[in-house]
Amino acid sequence: MNETLQRDEEVLLASLDDPGQFSLLVEKYQRPFLRVAYGVVRNPQEAEDIVQEAFCDIYRNATKFKKQEGASFKSWAYRVVLNKAISHYRKLKRERERFTLLEPDHYENLGVDEVLSTALDQKMTAEKMLDRLPADLRRVVEAYYIEDKSYADIAREEKMSLSTLKMRLFRAKRMMKELAISI
Q1: What does the alpha-carbon distance between residue 11 and residue 57 come to, in Å, rounded to a whole number?
Q2: How many CB atoms lie within 10 A of CB 25?
Q3: Quick one: pLDDT at residue 24?
Q4: pLDDT for 99-144, tens place per residue?
Q5: The whole model's pTM is what?
Q6: Which residue, 58, 6, 63, is CA-closest to 29?
Q7: Which of 81, 142, 164, 165 has CA atoms 20 to 30 A from the CA of 150?
Q8: In whole angstroms, what separates CA 147 from the centre of its chain?
Q9: Percent helix, percent strand, percent coil in the chain, to nearest 5
Q10: pLDDT greater at residue 158 or residue 105
Q11: Are 58 and 80 in contact (CB under 8 A)?
Q12: C-alpha gyration radius of the chain
């Protein structure tokens, strides 16, 4: 086995007793992790935030790291960074899409009638899709996306676990994609 990889795993475990040891991993992997995160989000400040969060997750989950055939600390840590970066990118993308509709430049070349017509068409399409969802799925979609409630609040109100709520939202989104094609 490569001595460096074994050393990384030992440093990770040693850092649980002596947190100062973790700085060795930070020094070694910070630049490569920044390159990975930047490759996804294309923003240096966002990449730094992602890497910092990833290092925190790596440290917090150090006991969950299990040595497996073909998997090392390095591959596990890179996966943590990549997953963080992808999640962050998706969140930024959703926010950009949400706020694009509010920006005046978006409507600059359109007349007021066209803007209102487009907004009305979108609202009617969304309402048609919601009407076609089963009641249990419709309630969670409306609570999360329209009323902007947290997972915890919705789960408590609907008397279900978070995993059940997430599965219902997943099924609802899948159904709505299928409905969007047919409408």
Answers
A1: 16
A2: 21
A3: 94
A4: 655 555 555 555 555 545 565 666 667 777 778 888 888 898 888 8
A5: 0.52
A6: 58
A7: 81
A8: 20
A9: 85, 0, 15
A10: 158
A11: yes
A12: 22
